[in-house]
Amino acid sequence: MIAKPYSPNLGAVITGIDLSKPISDTELNFIKDTFHKFQVLFFQEQHEISPENQIALGKYFGALHIHPAAPKMKDYPEIFEIHTHKDSKISNGAEDFHSDVSCDVEPPLGTMLQLHILPDYGGDTMFANMYMAYNKLSEKMKIFLGDLNAIHESEHFYKDRYENNDVIGKNKKYPSAIHPIVRTHPITKKKALYVNKFFTTRVEGLNIEESKLILNYLFQHCEKTDFQIRYRWNKNDMAFWDNRCTLHKAIWDYHPMERKGRRVTIKGTIPY
To answer: Where are the domains of the chain?
Structure first.
């Protein structure tokens, strides 16, 4: 198995492993170490993985998270199907940079996405390094943000998009949580900014005007091109990204062409 850096900012391309087969302890340790070093991994030269195998693969890294709102794949509630086509009104993940389901009290550790159908061109995914975003702040700004928490909410985002599915439509439960604006990665111990346009709505303890100023600044800062990469998919590539220290955004520039895949998400812990 070989890991090759994708860019100086973040990311590594992994070859020499077949993810449809069981993973040895040596391979698992290599993947974990590389994941924590590069933040997002791109496994290339893969075959399409069955739902059962993708679930088993995700469980090597922890218990699986079930999305609180999105429709589930029939018989496989752990799998979130990503499918955009000529009749789609939305494309999952395409609106803004985000960290998956940060509105949960225990947001996901990471996400594993494999794409089986790709447009002839377009459909890239962008990733941003939140360690770098934090490190580029002034020391006084780091101190100021270090004492602040932000509110992450989902009703404004999930209600119109998922209101007819079993979770949101019937029970009307919209996850929300309060997390530190600067979180510490539980493995690397590095500090990262932890806000995103999807879910972060307010800064706790500030008035509305102050909160908007701080969040708008941070949103713009986190999206600086200096922190980013843009990945062009190959058929059956598997991406595995760390939601604790990256943001991502899918580019919907291929309508009316089709893009389809499946993802599993691994449970995380309460940010600190």
So the answer is: 2-266
Measured in degrees and rounded to the nearest 5, phi and psi for residue 253 equal: -120, 20
pLDDT digits (tens, 9 = 90+) for 230-250: 999 999 999 999 999 999 999
The yes-or-no answer on residue 230 being catalytic is no
pLDDT tens for 126-152 read 999 999 999 999 999 999 999 999 999
- Give me the CATH code for the 2-266 domain, please: 3.60.130.10
Q: Tell me if residue 263 is catalytic.
A: yes
Nearest to 174 by CA among 197, 200, 156, 161: 156
Q: Which amino acid makes up residue 193? A: L
SS3 assignment, position 32: helix
Give the global pTM.
0.94
Q: In sequence order, what DSSP letters do the residues of 77-91 get, joined into one string?
A: TT-EEEEE-TT-S--
Instruction: Give me the residues paired with residue 3 across strands.
Output: 14
List the catalytic residue out of 65, 67, 100, 202: 100
Q: How far apart are CA 130 and CA 191, in angstroms?
A: 8
Which entry of 67, 179, 244, 248 is annotated as an active-site residue?
248
